[in-house]
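Treating backbone geometry as a discrete language has practical consequences that deserve illustration. The sequence in question and its structure tokens are set out directly beneath this paragraph.
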Amino acid sequence: MDIKDLKFENGLITAVAQDHKTGEVLMVAFMDREALRKTIETKRGYYWSRSRRKLWKKGESSGHEQIVHDILIDCDADAIVLKIEQIGGACHTGYRSCFYRTIKGEIVGEKLFEPEDVYKK
């Protein structure tokens, strides 16, 4: 399948980052065509920031990169799964996964770093 065959809604496609060994879901983000192209070319996670309205490389400020091992496309071609090796934490809050708490508010994830130590502004 080619990038042109994927279904981007308003220029974006949902991208799920999943640990390539354990299957743990680490984060969900969005990609535009350029982010997906750069991800394929470099084997590193690139995404589109809807809030900052720009392309960003995962780990560009924290060093917590994603090494992409494979990319899966869903049956409707409107979402993708990146099978990755996460270097450091995936979540900007310091947790390994962005899915670190239950619906009841219980913290179930592993905190790897303090954001203020990594994201000095």
The chain has a mean pLDDT of 95. Residues 3-118 form a domain with the Ubiquitin-like (UB roll) fold (CATH 3.10.20.810).
